[in-house]
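Exercise 3.2. Students should predict the tertiary structure of the chain below and write it as structure tokens, then compare their answer with the key that follows.

Predict this chain's 3D structure.
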Amino acid sequence: MAGLDNALAGATRWIDTHLLVDRVRIRASATGEPVLNPATGQLTYPESPVLYEGRGAVLPASTTASRTVTPEQAQPWPQQHRSPYTLLTPLDAPVPPEGALVTVVEAHSPVSAALIGRTWLAADPGLAGTVDVVRRTPLDQNRAAAAGDAP
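Answer key:
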């Protein structure tokens, strides 16, 4: 539908210019066995291939995080809380597969600099629709990496 595509072109240009202002990296999920790093004594996974590095944005999926404050009595451990985010990339960027590792490698502002190095896991493949102006991928913050473990 050429008319609809022309109508959405302005929105796509605005999003590309004003919203996709950070640099993100998407890697395939880690495969293979972990290897001992003799310098740190930690097990590390081999680097996985980069699927995309370019313009993007990472945003909280909502203004409230999904958190469980008290564990359920039937469970022997406290439930882990989730921090859902959304990755925005241009429509011509590849669709991140489920389990892909997303990292912010460059932030447009000092306020966003705290996101550099933080990692997220793609909760599902990139969302698609018949009318899109930006690719959206649901993310979960990678708690294991934040604690210093392998993804």
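Discussion points: The mean pLDDT is 82. Residues 118 and 146 are 7 Å apart (CA to CA).
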